[in-house]
Automatic annotation (TrEMBL):
<dbReference type="Pfam" id="PF00294">
    <property type="entry name" value="PfkB"/>
</dbReference>
<dbReference type="InterPro" id="IPR029056">
    <property type="entry name" value="Ribokinase-like"/>
</dbReference>
<dbReference type="InterPro" id="IPR002173">
    <property type="entry name" value="Carboh/pur_kinase_PfkB_CS"/>
</dbReference>
<dbReference type="GO" id="GO:0008673">
    <property type="term" value="F:2-dehydro-3-deoxygluconokinase activity"/>
</dbReference>
<keyword id="KW-0418">Kinase</keyword>
<keyword id="KW-0808">Transferase</keyword>
<dbReference type="InterPro" id="IPR011611">
    <property type="entry name" value="PfkB_dom"/>
</dbReference>
<dbReference type="InterPro" id="IPR002139">
    <property type="entry name" value="Ribo/fructo_kinase"/>
</dbReference>
<dbReference type="InterPro" id="IPR052700">
    <property type="entry name" value="Carb_kinase_PfkB-like"/>
</dbReference>
<protein>
    <submittedName>
        <fullName>2-dehydro-3-deoxygluconokinase</fullName>
        <ecNumber>2.7.1.45</ecNumber>
    </submittedName>
</protein>
<dbReference type="GO" id="GO:0032259">
    <property type="term" value="P:methylation"/>
</dbReference>
<comment type="similarity">
    <text>Belongs to the carbohydrate kinase PfkB family.</text>
</comment>
<feature type="domain" description="Carbohydrate kinase PfkB">
    <location>
        <begin position="8"/>
        <end position="312"/>
    </location>
</feature>
<dbReference type="GO" id="GO:0008168">
    <property type="term" value="F:methyltransferase activity"/>
</dbReference>
<keyword id="KW-0489">Methyltransferase</keyword>
Length: 327
């Protein structure tokens, strides 16, 4: 596939992230580590580490968390287009866990600066979207309120007007809105996109049917074909330990993944998307896109943090090597 434009533009909220150590538990007064995290910026960082241009559009508070977020993302080589809100604060999320494993993520983002993002603000960055090869959005932003929902739709409209490829990761967050509200909105976005990423439960949500287990490649292919028929474009179904399936037209490609010891699986889905889009930008075929996506996703699982484990090209090659120490 040949894409017009250059690089990927992402749009969405990034928050401060508090993570407890392996012990004690948060409730026992653990000393927290402060970092950042956000699905769309995770994708942008994944691309930048692979040497591809990426841009992140958002809004942050005029506070220390906002400064930390914009500084960290810029330091990763991502172009940052983020207004500083003088009134509303930067959002925050907190990981809870046991034994060093994340068991739950809680969000403190109501009334955040990013929840004030709207279509007018996206309009100011229209040229960045128009000049990009890919616009990548997720189903998280529409859950933050009418303004962010309108911002995503306007970004997609601008992309469509200028021939920019639209990538959409369903990324349903049940903590933000119920399935009956989310389903129609996310299905509409998928129909507007050229490429939709979804897990099995998210595919069922878009189709408006009960979720059922996907136990093998055949189950996944059947579900993927139903989703493809419902939303059009191309579909990538993320199946966890089973790997992933890319479907375009009559073709279905299975990308198996190698087992990894997961230190922190949060962010692996974003890493997968970043790897897939990186390969797509390089005109790779679906099997090659799936291969890179699975390798990037697996690398992130091995390290704590949402994005810190994202590999560069050289690090990715090293992960595929003998495992011997370079002295």
């Amino acid at each position: 596939m040949t894409l017009n434009g250059k690089g990927v533009v992402t749009l969405g909220e990034t928050m401060g992230l508090l993570t407890p150590p392996a012990a004690p538990r948060l409730r026992d007064g653990a000393q927290m580590t402060l970092g950042i995290g956000g699905a769309e910026s995770n994708v942008a960082i994944a691309l930048a580490r692979l040497g591809l241009p990426s841009t992140w559009i958002s809004r942050v508070g005029d506070d220390d968390l906002g400064t930390l977020i914009t500084r960290e993302i810029r330091a990763e080589g991502v172009t940052v287009l983020a207004e500083r809100d003088p009134v509303f604060p930067t959002g925050l999320m907190v990981k809870e866990g046991r034994g060093g494993r994340t068991t739950r993520v809680r969000y403190y983002r109501a009334g955040s600066a990013a929840s004030r993002l709207d279509a007018a603000e996206v309009e100011r960055y229209a040229q960045a979207v128009a000049d990009a090869a890919v616009l990548h959005v997720t189903g998280i932003s529409p859950a933050l309120g009418p303004g962010p929902a309108a911002a995503v739709l306007r970004a997609v409209e601008i992309a469509r007007e200028h021939g920019t490829f639209v990538s959409f990761d369903v990324n349903h967050r049940s903590a933000l809105w119920p399935a009956e509200q989310a389903g129609p909105v996310l299905a509409d976005l998928a129909r507007r996109a050229d490429l939709t990423f979804a897990g099995p439960e998210e595919a069922a949500l878009l189709l408006g049917v009960p979720a059922s287990p996907v136990e093998n490649f055949e189950d996944g292919t059947g579900l993927g074909r139903r989703l493809l028929a419902g939303v059009g474009g191309s579909v990538v179904l993320k199946l966890g330990a089973l790997g992933a399936i890319a479907l375009t037209g009559d073709d279905a490609h299975h990308g198996p993944t190698e087992p990894v010891v997961a230190t922190d699986p949060v962010g692996a889905g974003d890493a997968f998307v970043g790897g897939y889009l990186a390969a797509l930008l390089e005109a790779a075929d679906p099997p090659a896109c799936l291969d890179l996506a699975n390798r990037i996703g697996g690398a992130v699982c091995r390290a704590p943090g949402d994005w810190e484990g994202l590999p560069t090209r050289a690090e990715l090659d090293a992960l595929s090597g003998t495992g011997e120490v370079v002295r």
